[in-house]
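input
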Amino acid sequence: MQAISVSSLNEQIKSVVETTFDNLLVEGELSRITYHGSGHIYFTLKDDDSSIKAVCFRSVASRLKFTLEEGQSVIISGSISLYKPRGEYQIIASSIEPSGVGALHLAYEQLKAKLKDDGYFDEERKKQLPKFVKRVALVTSATGAALQDMLRVASNRFRLVELVNYDVLVQGDEASGEIASAIKLADESGFDVIVVARGGGSIEDLWAFNEKVVADAIFEAKTPIVSAVGHEIDWVISDYVADLRAATPSSAMELILPDTKELLLGLDLQRSHAQSLLWQLLRSKKEQLEHIRALFASSSSEQKIIRYKESLQNIKALLDQQITFRLSSFTDQLALLKKMIESLKPKSKKGFVQISKDATLVELGSLDVGDEVDLMSESFALRAKILQKRSLS
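output
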């Protein structure tokens, strides 16, 4: 038998090993993990009796959703490669998944635990939302249902608010970066509140809101932020970091905006209370004047007459000042009330009316025969009943 070189032997072994073990699925425990500056991850995969070296190159490592940790049980898909100069073989990982739990779920729990330890969820750092808002930024897709739901609720509750949409992707690899950039831009633009929103979906659909770049943008913002992502049962990382979590995008607007009807009722109550206080003040001043007149009538001293006269003048000035102040306050309140009432009036063209059912604006097509509705133009209001319905399309 003719002797062969070590290099030749290793080459033959390499050929056999790499062609035989080119599509593996191996389960084991991670050990000796090294995150290299090149982006590669080197580690050992072991069980109770054996171990084997493995590497996850940068192209695969960059796609991992979770962090590899010591003692973690994983399933690796890959192939065996032999390094000929040293005669060493190792697993080349093409994908890594945690054993018994999905990669996204594990990544979610890992990031959640880290951010909690870093103070991102602390209640004492959360900002209070203003009672009355003038400008609200809506960070969501311009074509999504979430935006339309928020605009509809805002129109019904408080039309005086200014809503500005920052159109972003809400799912996909580029979504988290766009969302974070929009939050930072809105934070610098003088809004009272920022709403980060999207409709429901799977964990993959909502994943952009579980990325650290979005959590950092929310955490660093000076403007109060409401997270309204998915449905009530969906919790994402942005919900924990935000100053307020809303179950749905519609709920976010209900939490942020006051109800115009309640405001009008409150103005009526304040006006009644102010009128009552004014009449009490007038009665009190009248009693004081009558008392002074009585003292004046019972006194013959010229000096007392002078003092009483001065006292009367001071009281009259005070009364005039109080009356002027109260009337000015009432005028301001009535002007605000008039402005709000005018904002609620239908602004329609000649021949068109606004239709409402049970005090709620409705579309004509949503009505059925027998429904009672209110018809309102700029000049008239009518009560009507639907007798017939037919489609013109």
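quick obs: The chain has a mean pLDDT of 86.
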